[in-house]
Fold this sequence. Notes:
The structure is a homodimer of 156-residue chains.
Chain A: H1 11-19, H2 24-33, H3 38-45, H4 49-61, E1 65-71, E2 76-81, H5 83-86, H6 89-102, E3 111-114, E4 123-127, E5 140-143
Antiparallel strand pairs in A: 1-2
Helix pairs in contact in A: 2-3
Chain B binds a DNA duplex (30 and 30 nucleotides) through residues 22, 37-39, 42, 47-54, 71, 73-77.
Keywords (chains A, B): DNA-binding, Transcription, Transcription regulation
Pfam family, one (chains A, B): HxlR
Domain HTH hxlR-type (chains A, B): 10-107
Amino acid sequence: MAATKDPRPCSIADALALVGEKYSLLVLREVCLGNGRFDQLVRNIGAPRDILATRLRRLVDAGILTKRVYSERPQRFEYRATPAGLELEPVLMTLKEWGDRHIRKGTDLPMAVEHGCGNELVPVVTCRACGGEVRHEDLTAHAQVPGWTVTGPSAA
Amino acid sequence: MAATKDPRPCSIADALALVGEKYSLLVLREVCLGNGRFDQLVRNIGAPRDILATRLRRLVDAGILTKRVYSERPQRFEYRATPAGLELEPVLMTLKEWGDRHIRKGTDLPMAVEHGCGNELVPVVTCRACGGEVRHEDLTAHAQVPGWTVTGPSAA
DNA sequence: CCAGTGAGTAGGAAATCTGGACCCACGATA
DNA sequence: TATCGTGGGTCCAGATTTCCTACTCACTGG
Lengths: 156, 156
């Protein structure tokens, strides 16, 4: 008797359960920029200190950040992204590009990112197999869990 | 006297202010799958109905969704993604891929997406200028707002 | 008439968020 | 020595959100 009210099993939901809370992705942004200290995070994100402490614990537990000592006496810590955390950076860059275009409308961009090739980074999501840009009309989803179709729970 | 406690101006933060609330991106996932009706959203996302109603209003206001009538009598609505909404789908796909690898560890994936090229979609974020994959070590950020550096607010 | 469906509202309890105050260890200043 | 400043937090009261269950309203189909 599977509870019929369970939501769709989905890696997007799983990922958001880890990094979808308020401030979590901004923490990752700052850490990727190299700002891993508590006070920097508080200032640059604008989050309350205790909430930030909670988020940091969660992200460390999830294996997205690590807490490092950078000074023994006095004890001082710094958060850094693990490889898994760094692999979320492309998500952030894609989101930034969307915000640049749709919210800032391409003007007064507060931050530019330069790619190693020397140009300004404009991220494009592509298909590994064919290299083509990913666009909605080229995608077809297939649910692979019994009890679920793309449109919803099946009539069991 | 700029308030020194304002957070860093950033398109990522802007974007998350619109779509970063709980369930918002899951709404977009369902809508992109073609499930734009209220009850489908409730079932597939597992969100409380009132919260969902709030999110839908917000996403419509933000120009990410539109509300369409698909039946006059009785009045029935369907939510669809606007072009701006569809352009967030690559973000979702990238997030899904991250979740597939880091949370599901590549096993028991609940959903597969096929690309128009005939292969299973594995999204890769690339640089528009050079086509290379975006990786953390190739990125350099530059703050472009007076009062801010990459590391934090400048000393005025 | 009755049951069912789609799209919500209503209301109270539970959780989360907020801004600020506070703590502790240390180093620097005076 | 006393005091200040800094880094990294914790704790608290109050406001806001979110959750959950139930209810409404309009309509359809039998």
